[in-house]
């Protein structure tokens, strides 16, 4: 078991990618604290994940310094240490507001969660790791859209670009303390956002036609990558953002021979809309 006796915090750990990471960490022997804002979803996720291993849900709004401090304190009170911090919680502009119409309030909401929350969450976790004196691991969750220009999600894209640069400077700043920092940059993954894409045949076709692998990835695959980045197998990987995107980040034109999904084929995508976790 690659994470035996390790303790991890995963923000946004009750659904999607965060839940997938929690599952894989528990399978590898870690004790896990999952944080999120929705109490009902959090308690349900905790119940399900307990079937695998030792887990605790803690309410956490990553835009709140109080909550960020609290989730670390609760982790220490429950498990006695903190070895891995996964900054996964994020949000987006569901209205796809045009650049000329974005308000300061919209900007601040997304940036406070996606960048400020990652910045200070990592800082608080790192302070605890330094106090413990035996190093640790920080994994940030960025996005393929940190590299791709997506003008319909300008603040989100900007925030994820910031996460990638933050990952580099965090890695440099924390190296003297033996704290390893890297990021995961997912492409099209089976999450709530992707299920919304999956309800629009034209948009789904656009995404998949520019993904050479020709499919959506799974939270489990992100979880396996997070396990790799959290254990000693990845010790010489430093400040990197690892793209897990089926080739989406570099495919400029539709894949040759790509078959457009028909209305009949589209019934197969219903699972992405109905799945709750």
UniProtKB/TrEMBL annotation:
Belongs to the short-chain dehydrogenases/reductases (SDR) family. The keyword Oxidoreductase applies. This is SDR family oxidoreductase. NCBIfam families: PRK07231.1 (NF005559). The lineage of its organism: Bacteria, Bacillati, Bacillota, Clostridia, Eubacteriales. Signal peptide: none annotated. SUPFAM superfamilies: NAD(P)-binding Rossmann-fold domains (SSF51735). Coiled coil: none annotated. Keywords: Oxidoreductase. PANTHER family: SHORT-CHAIN DEHYDROGENASES/REDUCTASES FAMILY MEMBER. GO terms for molecular function: oxidoreductase activity, acting on the CH-OH group of donors, NAD or NADP as acceptor. InterPro entries: NAD(P)-bd_dom_sf, Sc_DH/Rdtase_CS, SDR_fam. One of its GO terms (biological process) is bile acid metabolic process.
